[in-house]
Amino acid sequence: MKLTFRGAARTVTGSMHEIQTGHRRLLLDCGMYQGRRKEAAERNRHFPFAPAEVDALLLSHAHIDHSGNLPNLTSNGFGGPIFTTAATRDLCASMLADSAFIQEKDAEFMNRRNSRRRRVIEELTSEPVEPLYTINDAKAAMEQFRDVDMHSRTEVLPGVFSTTHEAGHMLGSTFLELELEGKKLLFSGDIGRCCLPIIRDPERACAADILIMESTYGDRLHQPMMHAKDKLAHIINTTARRGGKIIAPAFAVGRTQQIVLMIHELIHEGKISEIPVFVDSPLAVNVTEAFRKHTECYDVETNAFLDNGDDPFGFRRLRYIRDVEESKALNDVRVPCIILSASGMAEAGRVLHHLRNNVGDPRNTVLITGFQAENTLGRKLLDGEKEVNIFGEPVRVRAEVLKINELSGHADQQELLAWMEPLVKTVKHVFLVHGEYTQQQALAAAMLERYNIKATIPERGESFTV
To answer: Where are the beta strands (DSSP E) in 276-345?
Structure first.
């Protein structure tokens, strides 16, 4: 078989890996690349292969960096099945439509701006900006989804079988065990951590000949999960005492629901005052409904809320906001509050308006709750830049910028090494993907030291015959 690493190679976003077996082509994920706008547009719009030549696709989970370019793939000729869990399918239905909506609005904005410039400079010409894909494209892509149950073995191509295993990264996430050409290939997707809120813990790897493994935190060690709630309580109480707001760019899928659940628990435990909490993201509202639907993915602690007749994702001071006017009205709130809003890397969506209106006030806190890719606004804030561009305009940063790393949905170095231990006696090829190069080098060194396994770190577009 031939493996070609089309995305998330020496970087975190844009997960996409191609397997050729005989005359068949299989894709693992089809994620959106996120980074510098021009580079991202070029990578996402143009595939390095003909989409119509792909026979089937396996989707590990719903995060946009793994699923976000599916509508572009299908609208350009891919007509095969997309195999994934029912929870992932329901999440993608909302997430891909939201992604399309944002792209359509961005294209409209750019075309209006270019039109104004052409009126000022008559000789200036430019082609109209087209969205990467439309809402109709996103809806059409959903028709190709095929549900697979957790732990089920499915024939995805003639003679090619895939078994799903619990990855513990987000609702419905899987790692995939493929059987083809007399070999077993394991694709990690994104591996989660033990004791994450809401979802079940990741299962350990199984024996395999080939491993494609994520390396997001290949040189990091996370703080124990128990510290996350205490840190969140401290941040909420400190910000509230100085009369400020907490603006949290939070991934609409998973991270928002985790934080809501933790705030709910902190209120029950009397560790924070009951300040207003706003989830200002239509996507997060829709996604929360999917979370409520798929209770089969819950861990024991979250099921305990249901057993007590309680809603894990609802309490008295919590409001979910869909309406644009209600979102704008949050600018007029003059009391301490918490605003959770997408996107998680502060690259698009309503959180940009909240940041523009609040990062200049030293009473406020910007709370970073997840991984921030290079060149994103979230990363710039986290790196302590004193001035950032929001909607193309420079904005001075005076708010306190804090982070909670403990909620990371990605396993750290030691957790990744422990996860892969069951296959170290059988594996012949290890490929590290979905990580910045320094992270991958560190994980490769640790793997060599602990297991005497040499890992390959492929470049984008690099192929291997195994």
So the answer is: 277-280, 318-321, 337-341
3-state SS assignment for residue 66 = helix
CATH superfamily name and code, 2-220+409-465 = Ribonuclease Z/Hydroxyacylglutathione hydrolase-like (3.60.15.10)
Residue-wise burial string across 335-365, b where 16 or more C-beta atoms lie within 10 A, e elsewhere: ebbbbbbbbbbbbbbbbbbbbebbbeeeebb
Q: How confident is the model at residue 115 (pLDDT cuts 50, 70, 90)?
A: confident
Tokens of 271: 């560790």
Domain boundaries, the chain: 2-220+409-465, 226-403
Q: Helix, strand, or coil here: 305?
A: helix
Strands 400-403 and 82-84: unpaired
What are the pLDDT digits (tens) for 204-258? 999 999 999 999 999 999 888 778 899 999 999 999 999 999 999 998 888 899 9
- CATH code assigned to 226-403: 3.40.50.10890
* pTM to 2 decimal places: 0.86
Enter the DSSP assignment of 250: -
Contact 368, 402 (CB under 8 A): yes
Element (H, E) at 257: helix 255-268
Residue 51 · residue 185 · CB < 8 Å:
no
Q: Give the chain's end-to-end CA distance (angstroms, integer).
A: 6
DSSP letter string, 158-177: TTEEEEEEE--SSTT-EEEE
- Name 143's Cβ contacts closer than 8 Å, sequence gap at least 6: none
Q: Give whole-number Cα distances, 215 to 11, 97, 417, 425, in Å.
A: 10, 29, 10, 20
